[in-house]
Specification:
Length: 726
């Protein structure tokens, strides 16, 4: 007997609904898009379609591993946890412990619900994550402008008349910090209804090819370009404010230094194009500016992310339909008691400021290598592969080898986890519940969907249980973590005026919660207390209701809600936060600088996902390979053929060339997440490629956020076989 089940795809930010067919043995026999999902409406991509192969990959770990020298031994769970405890007991000072949380934590219930308690239990400030290799500039800009790092406006994709998109390629990535299943279809619909799409990218990507206009920009210079647009709005009297703001005069002052003629040379975008973009943005009935990873992982990432929302504000488009809007997720984040701040503490070695409670992953190697009080000797990684994904990952590869003890929670033995003393594998995807606590906060329509586990755990702990157990080991406190958290949340809610449960009895409310696991009960609580919840009084949302609606629930289009979202001390939008404006000097200082002759950027491929889907046969090969895209003019100028040697300040690689006129002259592109030579993942090893993060530089960061810089890395390129004096 086969069965048909529905669940959310956990692989990227698009949160598509999937319909799976399972045979009697619980094996996936087919995966289709779920036509009844009100948000994704049947959309699916090749990754979602291969979920079955991934779920049953013979190379994935099923039991814990303990490393003894170079040998791995499969052990039972109790032995594995005892080994972790023994490793941690050897640490005299918790300041010597560190944790790294990788990208899949943003997709899993375990990451959302148990990451923070684990950090607290470990009691260290050495907290690192993929966020400082990704979107930290956006959190810092939003935190300082709107008072909350998660107050991130998204383009109102389905209604906007004009979309200016920088450094994003949703036709490959399916979107990021903008949850929108079938992003390609939504962009086509925008154009079909007479809207205009402009894409700014050093490559003519598939997204750019679909747009009305593609603008080539020199890597790393988006902040100049955006300032040029802001300058024009002021110069031509095109500013229309729809909200009261602080700092308008400071923004106008700062923008004076960046007239279009001055930034044209640096950005490669002609002055008349910059002026026209400003006029178009101002004239559009509604418009949104949206910028992603190409602009975040850059030297001026925070300035660029800030200017994106400055433009949304200055054109009157923030918080209005068709503009840039704040989603209202069903498990809405709580209020912040203190104003958002960055730099509350600094890293030990380089003195880099904390943001969102994290230190930059760009300095993790320093903390492991540098002796002294607080030197990191014990590391936990959860769902991360920083050896391939962090800037100058090659250095981390060596640094991890020097740790006293390392624990990894991961389904693969890979470039990072090979250094662990203990690897704890999560169960199969189909054995886990799924709710997108994080990603639904960035959705272009309000929506909720819960996927319960489809298969039993068979004695193996869930990932939630693994993380909770690690927290118990680290804190030394026994007890039920979930019931503790539930008690705390209920206590706060019953003491908060207007919470819908003010003055009610905690035990009584606790007894009303449903759910098979602690995670489900916490979800039920958050839904009931959330803006559509049955307790908050504005709806009837609960776990039960989501279980009764397995295709998901549409909660309506985005609505203006700035008043609810703003958490700044002034109660106004802070258009010119001092910590950001301070960095404008650095930008000005480089305005006249001659750009390097050749710079390196990254790219994504539809069938890839950072470093960890290269072991799924149907996804690798063909156009999804690790090649260096280079303009034919550069190939000819440098006398290259077939392969070339790329050198940076940090390392060198020999790579196959892919000449294409879709990339600007003077720019080359190499995807990240490759470099699987010698991997125990058999398919990935056959498609090894090289790691671009051998070349990237951990000493360069976006200053306000500490974010890594992956785009605009200076490199030189020479034919293979030519010996260059170093
Ligand atoms: N298929 C696939 N999907 C993914 C992922 C994946 O690896 N593969 N990863 C997921 C993750 S973790 C994330 S964060 C998202 C990212 O989602 P996106 O931000 O859409 O990521 P990319 O496809 O890398 O698009 C970035 C674009 O920026 C361009 N670019 C590079 N440098 C610059 C610059 O200086 N300025 C400008 N304006 N553009 C520049 C690149 O050419 C590229 O086209 O994708 C997610 N989805
Ligand atoms: N040069 C360059 N470098 C980049 C980028 C770039 O554009 N260019 N992009 C950056 C970005 S945006 C990101 S987000 C980071 C990603 O950085 P990381 O998060 O460090 O890297 P991933 O490749 O996503 O690694 C995910 C790991 O989690 C494991 N995993 C997958 N699912 C699960 C699960 O459910 N549970 C557990 N426990 N483990 C799981 C996988 O096996 C893999 O080891 O890379 C960054 N690095
Ligand atoms: S677009 Fe993303 S969420 Fe949708 S099927 Fe593909 S990988 Fe899964
Ligand atoms: Mo990312």
């Amino acid at each position: 007997m086969t069965s048909t089940v529905h669940r959310t795809c956990p692989l990227c930010e698009a949160v598509c609904g999937l319909t799976l067919t399972l045979d009697e043995g619980g094996h996936v026999t087919s995966v289709r898009g779920d036509k009844d999902d009100p948000f994704s409406k049947g959309f699916i991509c090749p990754k979602g379609a291969s979920l079955g192969q991934l779920d049953e990959d013979p190379d994935r770990l099923r039991r814990p591993l303990i490393r003894e020298g170079d040998l791995w031994r499969e052990v039972g769970w109790e032995e594995a946890f005892a080994a972790v405890k023994a490793g941690l007991d050897r640490v005299a000072d918790r300041r010597s412990t560190a944790i790294y949380l990788g990208n899949p934590n943003a997709h899993s219930m375990a990451g959302a619900l148990y990451g923070a308690p684990l950090i607290r239990a470990l009691g260290t400030r050495n907290v690192y994550s993929a966020s400082t290799a990704d979107q930290m500039p956006k959190h810092v800009a939003s935190g300082l402008m709107f008072g909350h790092p998660l107050a991130i406006p998204v383009p109102d994709l389905d209604r906007t008349d004009y979309l200016l998109m920088l450094g994003a390629n949703p036709l490959e990535s399916n979107g990021s910090l903008c949850t929108a299943p079938d992003f390609p279809g939504r962009l086509k619909a925008l154009r079909a209804r007479g809207g205009r799409l402009v894409v700014v990218d050093p490559r003519r990507t598939r997204t750019a090819a679909l747009a009305d206009e593609h603008v080539f920009v020199r890597p790393g210079t988006d902040a100049y370009l955006l300032f040029g647009i802001v300058h024009t709005l002021f110069a031509e009297d095109l500013v229309t404010l729809a909200h009261q703001v602080n700092g308008l005069a400071e923004v106008r002052e700062a923008a004076k230094h960046f007239p279009p003629e001055a930034v044209a040379r640096r950005t490669g975008v002609p002055a008349e194009v910059i002026v026209r973009l400003a006029r178009e943005l101002a004239a559009a009935r509604t418009a949104a500016v949206y910028a992603r990873i190409g602009t975040c992982t850059a030297e001026f990432g925070t300035l660029a992310q800030w200017l994106v929302d400055v433009l949304n504000v200055l054109t009157g488009n923030l918080d209005r339909p068709g503009g840039a809007m704040f989603p209202k997720p069903a498990t809405e984040f709580g209020a912040r008691r203190k104003p958002y701040a960055v730099g509350r503490w600094k890293s030990r070695v380089r003195g880099l400021p904390e943001s969102n409670g994290e230190l930059p992953v760009a300095t993790l190697a320093d903390e492991i290598e540098t002796p002294g009080e607080g030197q990191v000797t014990f590391l936990i990684t959860v769902a991360g592969n920083p050896v391939l994904s962090a800037p100058h990952g090659a250095r981390l590869d060596a640094a991890f080898g020097r740790l006293d003890f390392m624990v990894s929670v991961d389904l693969y033995l890979n470039e990072t986890t090979k250094h662990a003393n203990v690897i704890l594998p999560p169960p199969r995807m189909l054995q886990s519940g799924h709710y997108d606590f994080t990603l639904l906060g960035f959705a272009v329509r309000n929506y909720a969907r819960y996927s319960p586990p489809l298969l039993p755990l068979d004695g193996q702990p869930s990932e939630a249980q693994i993380l909770a157990r690690l927290a118990v080991i680290a804190s030394g406190l026994e007890g039920d973590l979930d019931e503790f958290v539930i008690g705390e949340m209920l206590r706060k809610a019953t003491e908060t005026p207007g919470s819908g449960v003010e003055g009610r009895d905690v035990a009584e409310l606790r007894a009303e919660l449903e759910g098979e696991t602690g995670g489900e009960r916490r979800l039920d609580l958050m839904l009931k207390l959330g803006p559509y919840g049955e307790w908050a009084g504005k709806g009837d949302l609960s776990l039960r209701k989501l279980l009764d609606n397995p295709h998901g629930l549409d909660l309506g289009p985005l609505e203006p809600r700035l008043g609810e979202v703003l958490k700044t001390a002034s109660g106004l939008i802070e258009l010119a936060p001092p910590q950001i404006v301070e960095d404008v000097e650095r930008l000005r200082g480089k305005l006249e600088e001659d750009p390097p002759e050749i710079v390196l950027i990254g790219r994504r491929h539809l069938r890839s996902n950072n470093s960890w889907l290269h072991n799924v046969g149907p996804l690798v090969g063909g156009s999804n390979t690790c090649t260096l895209q280079i303009n034919p003019a550069d190939v000819a100028r440098l006398g290259l053929d077939g392969e070339a040697v790329v050198r940076s300040a940090k390392g060198q690689l020999t790579v196959p060339l892919e000449p294409t006129d879709t990339i600007m002259p003077g720019v080359v592109s190499l995807p990240h997440g490759w470099g699987h030579a010698g991997s125990s993942q058999s398919v990935a090893a056959e498609h090894a490629g090289v790691s671009v993060n051998t070349l990237t530089d951990e000493s360069t960061i976006d200053v306000p956020s500490g974010n890594a810089v992956f785009n605009g890395v200076p490199v030189t390129i020479s034919p293979t076989g030519v010996i260059i004096a170093q």
